[in-house]
Each structure stands twice: as C-alpha cells, then as structure tokens.
Amino acid sequence: MEYKISNRLRMGAIIMVVLGLLGVVYGFMDANSVTEDNISEVIAAEHHGHGDEHATEGHGDEHAEEAHGEEYGESASHVDDSHGDEAHGGMTKHEEHALHQIHNRPYSALYVAAFFFFMIALGVLAFYAIQYAAQAGWSPVLFRVMEGITSYVLPGGLLVLAIAFVADSHLFVWLKEGVTEVGHENYDKLVAGKSGWLNKTGFFIRGLIFLGGWSLYRYFSRKFSLAQDTADDNRNFKKNFRISAAFLVFYIYTESMMSWDWIMSVDPHWFSTLFGWYVFASMFVSGITVIAMITIYLKSKNLLEFVNDSHIHDLAKFMFAISIFWTYLWFSQFMLIWYADIPEEVTYFVTRIEDYKLPFFGMLAMNFIFPLLLLMNSDYKRINWFVIMTGIVILCGHYIDVFNMIMPATVGPRWSIGIPEIGSILLFGGLFLFIVFTALGKAPLLAKRNPFMKESEHFHY
Amino acid sequence: MEASKVIHAIYTDDDVLMSAVKKVKAEKHHIEEIYTPFPVHGLDKAMGLAPTRIAITAFMYGCVGLTVAIVMMNFIMIEDWPQDIGGKPSFSYLENMPAFVPIMFELTVFFAAHLMVITFYLRSRMWPFKKAENPDPRTTDDHFLMEIAVHDNESELTSLLQDTGAVEINLVDKEDAH
TM spans, by residue (chain B) (predicted)? Predict the structure, then answer.
C-alpha cells in the first residue's frame, strides 16, 4: 500500500513545468514586444479583423446594444484610466489603454492558473476538515489522498501571493500610483474610499494570515493523522476533530475575505455579497473532482484496494451536487444584478456577455449541464472512466470560471486562450502533480488506526 | 395465480427476518409478499425484487414540469399580455429567461415530486377508501409477516420456516381480492 511517485510521472511533471515556463517566458516577451512605438499598428491590425466580423454579423440590434455596453464599461469600470494625453507623447487614451491590457495578459494568465490549482488544494482542505468535524464514516479510506492534495496549499498559496506582489497594478488597478491622491491624474474617489481595506500592506498581511492559518491546520491535522497510525488510543483523532471544527470557522471567514482580496478587488468598483460563497463552491467542486480523479488513478494501480465502488459513487454524488450548488450561487448572483440593471453593478455582466460570450456561457454548459446530465444516473457514478471524463469537463469549466473572474478586468476584450494561458496551466499543473504525488508517497495510503476505518472499508451504498 | 392457500410466517426481529428470507430464497420458494412495520434496508434485494423504476419516471415528470413552466410563462408574460421585465422591454422569452428560471425550477420539482408520489401510490395499488390488504394488524406495530404460496408442500415449508426462527406459522385460505 506504499506508494512512490513513479519516474514516468515525475518526468512528466517536470516536462510540464519546463514547457510551461517556456510558454510563460514567450508570453511576456510577446507582450513586451508591443510598445508605445508600435501600438497603433497593432490596434490597426486588430481593427481590421474586427471589421470583418462585424460585417458578417451585421445585426442592427446587436450594434445598438454593444454601444450601450461600451458606454457602461468605459464610464463605470474604467474611470481610473483617464490619463492625460500629454503624459505619454503621441499615444491616445485608447492606445494607452490597449497597451496596458496587452501587457497585463501574461500576468493575468499566470495568476489565473496559479489560483486555479491553489483553490483545488484549498477546497480539498475544507472537504477534509468537514469529514473530521462530521466524524464521517465513509471517507477515512480517502484521507491520505486528501492529505496528499492539501500539501499544495502552502506552496500554491505563496505562489499566488508572489505573483500578486510582482504583478502589482497589472492585476490590481487600485495599486496604481496616485489612485488615492486627490488631484492626481489617477485619482479615483471610490477606490480612495476603500483604501482602508484595499492597500498593498493590508493585502499582503491579510494574505499571509489566511495562508498561515490554513497551513497551520494542514500541518497539525497531517501530524495527528500520521501519529494516529501508530497510537494505541484515539487521542490524536479527537485532537483532529477539535482542530477541524475550529479550522472550519476560521476558514469560512478567511475564504470569503480571500475571495474579495484576491479576486473581487480586480474590479474595485464592483462588489457582490455572495462572492465568497460563489468562489467557495468553485473550489469545493474542483477539489472533490480531483480527489475522485486521483483516487481512481491510484486504484487503477491496485494501490487502494480498500476503496470500493461505493466510495467512488459518493464522490461522484458530491461532484454532481456541488456542481448544482455552484450553479445556484452563480445564478443567484447573476439574476439579481441582471434584473435590477443598476449601471455600476450590471457593468460586470455587460462586459462579460459582450466580450466573453463563449467562455461565459460555455462555462455554464461545462459546469452545470454536463455534470447534471452525465452524473444524474446512479449507475454512471460508479463507472470510473465516466467519472474521469466528467471530472475533466468540470475542471476545465472551473478554470474558465476563474478566467472569467480575472480577465475581463485586466485584459478586457484582448483575451485569448493561447500560449501564455496554456503555458501557465502546464507550469502550475506540473508543479501541482509533482508536489501532490511526492506527498502521497510519504505515508501509507491507509490511515489504518482511524477509529472509523472499519466502517469506511465496509462502506456500502 | 390461484394460490388459494398461503402460509403466514411471523417474525419479531428484522435481522431474523432477513436471514429467513435468504434461506427461503435459497430453497427456491416464491415469497409472495412481506409486511413490515418499517422499511427494512436490503429486503428488496434479498427478496429478488426488480430494481425500482421510479427514478426514470421522476426524470420524465421533471421534464414535463419544465415544459409546462416554459409554455405557461411564455403565454402569460410574452404572448398574451407582454410585460416589461426589469426595465428591459424586449418581449422575447429567451432574453427574459433569467426572470423565469425560479419558476422553471419550482415547477420541475413540483411536477416530479407530486407525480412521483401519485405514481408510487397507484403502483402500490393504494387509493382512497381502499380496504387494507394487511393480513395481520400486528405488522403495523412490531411484527414482520412473510407470505408464501403453498403448492402441496405445506409440511416441508412449515419445517423450513420453523428453522428460520418464525414465532408463529399459520396456514390461511386467501380470498382473491383482485
């Protein structure tokens, strides 16, 4: 039952990281090749392409609406872009704006991928804590898989923070110089009003507190879980129960605040009160999906013979249920804002529907309709390859979900899923696989002295 | 079937009943029916009953509910008396769809749930003013009753059932109600 990361997997992960790095470096070089000098040509080339598209679409209504949307976008969400023309030689306001978006793209691509893999690990950590706090009887055979995945929480979280630190105002407009200074050309009254919370020092202090708390829980729960293997009483299990309950309280507050800081603040004028829950649903379903996928992978190597069909069935039920929960939250956020149609709120969805039509609605299909139809039938939840295929769709869908949360604010209509994005996915995906599977090899795959182990091994649905 | 004579074996414990069912099935006897005061987990499998198809009906009823909601809201809010929804007077069902999603959801659930219950009652042959089929009132309290058809093998069955721990074995003439 001992697992050691295979050479093939390790090599694969390293190759992914190297390829990813190349992609990321290319992304930065490509973005920086556009400068003040040639920006007008780049935009001219873009416009040429756009013109063609419009000619083929050519609906009167659509044009009217687009104009409407742009108005919102420019006046409400990008007030901070009112630079004086004289500041930058020959560039027009539009050109400077476009140049910023082009330069923001590789940073955003890195950030989206880094956050996506980090949120998988964090979602699993919450799921793990819930199993302990609820004293669940079905899941202890999966604990070591979950502990392997949560080993990515600390490195992944530090990477997200590091990227945020380096990217600075490329990601967070509220970090621009002079945003809070009255009279400065970048002055933004709304952001200035929020500067008590939204400032660089506070952002990183909070980030480190969140990450510190989560990593402490992960460190001690892993320690007690391993100690329980060789113990002759249940003291370690009880300690784990207590710290898990405490962690969940800490987590639900800090996760919410983290989602305001790390994600919602890229659109500093816009806010949504259930945003924290929405991000939570996304990380929860991605995390559970990864638990199911890694469990099936290890089972296919005959390493988890004590995991039976019913465990896979239950994980798939969670994938199904939390996908619907995610949709419920997504829709709750969308419908109220769409219905009320208040300009400063609805601009968020106007930009997404205008510029991100395919990822925005495609994500709904991938995160809701796919799991709904594929995992509805009880028997399908036990077919391993079926769970894997649905899992891949769900993970892609939630990557796009994060993409849709960050990109519209940073690169606007100049998005694409090209080399910078795929390179970043490979980079952090490779790192994730490497860290998780190395951690899986560090302890026996069965937490054998867990008091619920017998129940879990005989779990039958 | 005209099995006019049946044996009623009575048990007082669900675990004993479960092992008795397995033994009787192993001897290839046909169990007509079992009456229990509460649902016994796994009993349907032990008796060899076909898996339930209620989930399939639930899906179909849900689809009916969804369709009814769409047709109804389209008629009420778009066709018959066009409404300006949220200051967006487009008079198109698709563009106003988000406003109707709660109704679509609720009617899906409503149809699935109610029709499923009605289906279950009809399939179990239960309707208002129906006379209870329950042969022994004690099965509504703390006794379990297994009904087995007799085909000139009364003594064999009786001894088998005695072995399984039945507390009472009665040979009954069954009047065919249906």
Answer: 54-77, 97-122
A340 interfaces chain B, CB cutoff of 8 Å = yes
Please give the tally of structural domains in chain A: 1
d(CA B45, CA B123): 19
Could you read off the pLDDT of A195-230 as tens digits, one per residue? 999 999 999 999 999 999 999 999 999 999 999 999
At B175 the pLDDT is: 65
In a domain, A65, yes or no: no
pLDDT at residue A422, rounded to an integer: 96
Across B31-62, b (16+ Cβ under 10 Å) vs e yields: beebbbeeebeebeebbeeeeeeeeebbeebb
Both tokens of residue A447?
Answer: 């937490």
Question: Are both B119 and B149 inside the same structural domain?
Answer: no
Out of A339, A376, A378, name the one closest to residue B99 (CB): A339
Q: What's the domain range around B45? A: 5-51+141-173
B137 touches chain A (CB under 8 A): no
Instruction: With respect to residue A14, please indicate whether it lies within any of the assigned structural domains.
Output: yes
CB-based burial label for A280 (10 Å; 0-12, 13-18, 19+): buried
The tally of domains found in chain B comes to 2
Average pLDDT over every residue of A285-309: 94
Contact A335 B59 (CB under 8 A): no
DSSP H stretches of helix in A263-383: 275-300, 309-340, 343-355, 357-364, 370-374
Residue B108 amino acid letter: T
Instruction: Give the pLDDT band of residue A72 (cuts 50, 70, 90).
Output: very low
Summarize pLDDT for B67-91 with one digit per residue, the tens. 999 999 999 999 999 988 888 888 8
Q: Is B71 on the interface with A (CB under 8 A)?
A: no
Q: Is residue A52 pLDDT above 80, yes or no? A: no
| ipTM associated with this complex | 0.81
| Residue B107 CB coordination number (10 Å) | 21
Q: Does B86 lie at the interface with A, CB-CB under 8 angstroms?
A: yes
